[in-house]
Specification:
There is one protein chain. By secondary structure, the protein is mainly alpha-helical. 76% of the residues lie in helices and 0% in strands. It contains 3 helices and no strands. The protein has helices at residues 9-63, 70-103, 112-117. Helix 1 packs antiparallel against helix 2. The relative contact order is 0.11.
């Protein structure tokens, strides 16, 4: 408080409000990052399960693979679909977060550093 001794009461009040606003934005940003991480994990798991289930249905119902080459083909397709599922999960995550931020107008409620993670979202002035 020593550095604030020469400031006017209005300036001290403004700085106090700015600090409170920053802390509120920081808390909201932390909650948003935690929730978005959980959403990303769930989305990615759903996409991976859907891709692997579709792969199994195609392999056993449509192609009807035999017992000799079956395990090798399934291992290869699971390996490829795992990485495809991760990439699709990242795209779904970014789309979902963009939708949530714009739908609930969170651009003014969370920190700019958190918004910078989603570069395609412009902050309203």
């Amino acid at each position: 408080m020593i550095e604030n001794a020469d400031l006017s009461p209005e300036e001290q009040e403004r700085r106090k409000r700015d600090k409170i606003e920053f802390r509120n934005k920081q808390r909201a940003s932390n909650i948003f990052v935690l929730a978005s991480t959980l959403i990303q994990i769930i989305e990615t798991l759903i996409i991976l399960c859907a891709l692997l289930w579709a792969d199994l249905m195609i392999m056993f119902k449509v192609i009807k693979i035999d017992n000799e080459s079956g395990p090798t083909i399934l291992q290869l397709s699971f390996f490829i679909l795992f990485f495809v599922g991760l990439i699709l999960g990242f795209f779904a995550y970014r789309f979902t977060m963009k939708f949530i931020i714009t739908k609930f107008d969170l651009s003014n409620k969370i920190l700019d550093s958190t918004l910078d993670h989603y570069r395609f979202i412009r902050k309203k002035k």
